[in-house]
């Protein structure tokens, strides 16, 4: 199964309903929110008069597309056929729907579901199919399989790692550059899980400003230094089990600067990579 299938997923999360006091005037404009824990998107239901207003708070660093579906509607107006689809900017709270009664004196009745997906492809804030550079496989040998894909529930849930992939492989497997560029950072001296969750790693800057990062490398195996130019296939080091790792594997991610942070962005490999169920466990 190609990686493009993994990164075409739509992350669906049902959100708990929280009743809040109605805002002044019963309306809300887009409002920028302070920085918060990434990855939080919530639906709030507020009572306004005899109706209800539905707001979405997006605490992530990227825009999200939200979908609100209302079914079995009785005495409800204001939402058409019951499907509301909106884009909520990063760090924003936004009203997506206002429910009104068709007839006063009768209750509003409906069932609802709420989901969202990150608008992250190919660049933050822009919709589009995954395109751009095609990355060579960043290892030699195999064949190997993906042990945790994009959006994996163990560690691929933050904006920095949303589209990362973990490839299970024996410790000592040669890790090579998937794209030409300049080595920005490299760590080679970590022996276990601490202090850096990435363990030993190499980070490469590419000519379009994106970065690729190769994590959890074996101690003492890194062959490159910051400032060094590398080509596709250049040996970077060997796979290991350092940092926050549940077993020997390579964590590979492509990122782009977004504000003061680095955000994971979708990418594609030049060859298919077989997949396994996400067996990563939180232990």
UniProtKB/TrEMBL annotation:
<feature type="domain" description="M23ase beta-sheet core">
    <location>
        <begin position="163"/>
        <end position="256"/>
    </location>
</feature>
<dbReference type="InterPro" id="IPR050570">
    <property type="entry name" value="Cell_wall_metabolism_enzyme"/>
</dbReference>
<protein>
    <submittedName>
        <fullName>M23 family metallopeptidase</fullName>
    </submittedName>
</protein>
<feature type="signal peptide">
    <location>
        <begin position="1"/>
        <end position="24"/>
    </location>
</feature>
<dbReference type="GO" id="GO:0004222">
    <property type="term" value="F:metalloendopeptidase activity"/>
</dbReference>
<dbReference type="InterPro" id="IPR011055">
    <property type="entry name" value="Dup_hybrid_motif"/>
</dbReference>
<dbReference type="Pfam" id="PF01551">
    <property type="entry name" value="Peptidase_M23"/>
</dbReference>
<keyword id="KW-0732">Signal</keyword>
<dbReference type="InterPro" id="IPR016047">
    <property type="entry name" value="M23ase_b-sheet_dom"/>
</dbReference>
